[in-house]
Amino acid sequence: MKILFAVDASPTCEAVIEHLASRPWPKDTIFGILHVINSKDWESTAGEIERGLKQEMQAAHDLVNAAAERLTAQGVEVSTAVIVGNPRLAIIEYAKLWNVDLVIVGALGMHHIQTFFLGAVAKNVLREAPCSVEVIRPLETEQTRLFEAGMKILLATDGTDESLAAILSVANRPWPEGSEVRVVSVVEPLESLAVYWDDHSTVQNTIEETNRLLARKAIADAEFILSNEGFATSSTLLMGNPKEVIVEEGQNWGADLIVVGTRATHGRERIQMGSVSDAVATHAACSVEVVRKH
Questions:
Q1: pTM for this entry
Q2: Domain interval for residue 106
Q3: Residue, of 101 and 195, whose pLDDT is higher
Q4: Could you tell me which of 113, 153, 126 has the C-alpha nearest to residue 287?
């Protein structure tokens, strides 16, 4: 498994490094630690570019090396890189060049209603990365709980191939001992069908019941896969807007990580994405992994 982690000098990044060091990873995992020096910072300082850039390069190498040492101490193979460019674009291009399986970014910090928010770089990586993306929102007491009680992983499924990719991603990876997975599927209520059918209530009830049956099957299929891999599971069927109720369930259950699937998108689709995975990753109170199926 090849994982790219983009680091900076923020306190949040320090917490993300601790988070990553506390989790087990597949034996063949290689971490790439990348720092991008923003080229825009040097556009108006032509007289001191050489000296200033040299100093920043040294600071950047110190930054990635410190992160690498923290991860290698846990037995993970690590490589490092420092490049100059536009961070919003350079991280994506490096992920393509290195052919990574997962890009990890950190949420910036807390805003006025005490939830983490995404910066422009993280949002762009989430929408444009050619692979899966995990947005990490570290919690104050997280490290102790990860070691003592495992992780609480909320896995959303709708029975599609994209959801299957997310299920297998969880099932095929190691997690802290004692971790549990809560499988959820969401049935979105239909708008009134009165304009289309005279007997609209019967038709609407039939469609909604069919959707509930499909959601229950999606949950059962996920639990079967996870149980066969030794995971402790629970499940629930949710009603409402998936963009909202998945986030709410994660917060109510106290999830450490929400995992959702999405498809690879291109061009205009990315700009207008507005998908469930995008909304969950943006608004969840905990970390979110968006598993991208190609």
A1: 0.86
A2: 1-138
A3: 101
A4: 153
